[in-house]
UniProtKB/TrEMBL annotation:
An annotated GO BP: protein maturation
Pfam families registered for this protein in UniProt: HupF_HypC (PF01455)
Protein name, entry field: Hydrogenase assembly protein HypC
Top-level taxonomic group: Bacteria
Amino acid sequence: MCLGIPGKVVDVEEGPLRLGRVAFGDVVKEVCLAFVPAARPGDYVVVHAGSAIEVIDEEKALRVFEAFRIMEGP
């Protein structure tokens, strides 16, 4: 079992290893985008262990964010 966290692609750097900056709320991290060649700035991706593994739509990402908010509690 793995835990993937959705984040929003901020920018993409093409090169031998496709990298990008992905925002997780206020935190922005460098992420490997090699497994999601279609990902573009503004897209949401699921990130596991520093690599984006899937492009998802905004609605799905927002549902996950809401679940996290509920789990966090008041």
